[in-house]
Fold:
Amino acid sequence: MPYKPKHCCQCGEKIDRLDWKPWTSRRFCELCETEFGIYEWLSRGLFGVGLLLGLFGIGSYLQRDDKPLNVAPKQTVSGVPSMRSNVVEQTNASQVSTNNAVQTLAQSSKSAAQLKSQVGTKASDFKTKQIESSTTERSEELYFCGAETKKGTMCSHRVKGGGRCWQHVGQAAMLPQQKLKL
Structure:
């Protein structure tokens, strides 16, 4: 026996239905069902699609034949002397071509490393000059504002020269000047 609610879950109105059919809403009254019925049908539809896919998957699994896999035996090269000599010649030729390729790669990487070292020294000099110039720009000392906030804590805005931030101009600091220094 399906659930028969006494009140609508959206508006709380009492539900009095004489005829409960499988397609009647189990959550909403007749008025709310027109607005929110799509949500109820959406969940029912997704459940139905999932059920069908599950049944199809189980049916496909059960219909599968258990055929043994055809594994062909490997052919050995040692049984045929003429093929063995061909394989040895091919491997020797591929090793020679690989060695030549490695030598050309080594030469090109050596020239690339020389270029990188030349460019790298210029770039590193530039970086050190930037760092040195940025440290000399900071001549003024930084302090915390230190004024009392609405919460009763110390303001943590950073200011130059030991003054107050724009919010606390004219207010006294909570701590002495030495403790506010960064």
User: Anything to note?
Assistant: The helical segments are 30-63, 81-137, 177-180.
